[in-house]
Amino acid sequence: MSTPAYNIDGFYFRSGPNIQINLVSAKEILPLRHHVLRPNRPLESADFLGDDDPSTSHFAAYDTEGNLVACATLLDKPFIINPDIPTTKDFQEFHPELLSTIGMRARQLRGMAVHPDHHKKGIGSLLLNYIETHQSIPMQTTDLWCNARTHAASFYQNHGWITVTPPFDIPNVGPHVQMYRKIRQY
């Protein structure tokens, strides 16, 4: 359900879910990350390498009742293409300029999750837009990348992300594709 226009950190949104986005600790988002991304594995499997690095940012989206409904993490990690996984033909043909960004400073989007009760309400889009607009300035980087689950790839493509690789398997997690986004500068 959409709400009237509202403001998050000075960014004006005409409509969408009424949520509050905060920077939080990894510990605060771990239960949701586990519930959505690693449901049949131990809680520790949702504790990612780099979660406690000082440069890592964890985002939590809360509904009007204060319930955690979505989360995501950004880590400082160069954009690297695994040499064992070929790039897509579209990436090679239509985005050759991105080959020069490989190995450059970037941020990896990781652990993005929306609670199943809140899917298809625009919360993931709002969180992703918030991250893109707020992380380009303080980190002085314009590049984001992620390993997206194959069923989520269209979500990222709809937000301007480019698919870099064909599907590959992350053991005990499932099929993913690597994706890239040059984020907006404000």
From TrEMBL:
Pfam families: Acetyltransf_7 (PF13508)
N-acetyltransferase domain residues: 21-184
Coiled-coil region list: none
Domain of life: Bacteria
Any one GO molecular-function label of the UniProt entry: acyltransferase activity, transferring groups other than amino-acyl groups
InterPro entries: Acyl_CoA_acyltransferase, GNAT_dom
Protein name: N-acetyltransferase domain-containing protein
Organism in which the protein naturally occurs: Poriferisphaera corsica
